[in-house]
């Protein structure tokens, strides 16, 4: 019976949930009894994801979809407003959506695409949903980062980040993944006296759909070279699920995990000054404190 499942009565939101580790995460949360809300850009893929999750978890488990392109902050705000109207609380927020950038793209709102999708979106969505997370009493924010953060650094000058002449797909991705960790650290610090925890993770080298039209030939070559060493989305989702559900980390916050264990980060990722500076940059660029 659903009432006997560990997440019965809980609500979970998973971004980037129409494929890869996001889909596996959403499916497994639903199988544990959670009401799951999937966020994806493509309505057809989202509908197929909902159908596959209900097939695995049972038709009685509520699964909902929200179609938004989170690279645009106006869509993040619209999603948050919709959720605030529909939900009384949110128990689990999984910031999973992300891209591996290819050619340089500037969004309609004037942000480099990977920075907007991988960092500004989770920063904005999490902050906008804090009232719902707080209403849950004990809630968890899980953000998917990457080991690539080791070569990342935060460029404070938006003009430099938005310059095609300064752009590199590798540094853009690494910088956004470093931002995920610094954001998590600062969020945990700010939520220290609440019932909300915030942690992040490296899922492993996962065979997912990060390669897309526009991806550079060099990156495609590297991807296909590494493909035999990659793990499945099912394995890649395990650390996310651990942080979202395990009682072992119920009171752990502001940490970085890999393989469901605490992991080392770069010195830059541990910097309180860097985390505070990133928060100021993010607040300025999103208009959200």
From TrEMBL:
It comes from Hymenobacter sublimis. This is SDR family oxidoreductase. Gene3D superfamilies: NAD(P)-binding Rossmann-like Domain. Pfam families: adh_short. Keywords: Oxidoreductase. Belongs to the short-chain dehydrogenases/reductases (SDR) family. It comes from the Bacteria. PANTHER family: PHOSPHATIDYLINOSITOL-GLYCAN BIOSYNTHESIS CLASS F PROTEIN, PHOSPHATIDYLINOSITOL-GLYCAN BIOSYNTHESIS CLASS F PROTEIN-RELATED. Coiled coil: none annotated.
